[in-house]
Request: fold
Amino acid sequence: MSGIEYNPFAPPLPPGRARALPWMTVMLGSLTTTIPIVATVPILPPLGLLVLVTWRLLARFALRPWAAAPLGAFDDLLSGQPLGSSVLLWSLVFLGIDLIERRLVYRDFWQDWLIASAAIVFCLAGGHIVAMPVGAPIDAAMAAQAIATILLFPVAARMVAWIDRKRGMNSGLPTGDTA
Reply:
């Protein structure tokens, strides 16, 4: 048996579950901050943000434009950031991606990676400004966290593309016998 198990005639997920899957993956990414990890330098990437940006770039209509606000509130409640910081920053990221999509009709993976990198750095820097005192020396840790998150984007893109294919929302193939 091969590692690729693609069946084009397999029935897709029910529409309710298929619509909820992007929300659940972003929430699961935000839940990773609750895993107890002992580290000398806090470089755990914001996986909720990474998955959210990846869904927005790869499957544009999987999440509504307003989805960043409730998902950001969920992330704020779990991560300990001031309530409303991720709501604001993630919503601004969605608006920025919309503006970029109006200018760039066709995008390449490298352009998606660059857009995701800018969004990640913007959210990490904005979270630093909102949550930390002005003179807090965490610039090196924030830079390491940003680099780790940017390097994880291809993995997140692969995972989201696999989940989107399993969702089957874009297949348009008939699920039953048409004869």
In short: Residues 171-179 have pLDDT under 50 and may be disordered. The first helix runs from residue 15 to 31.
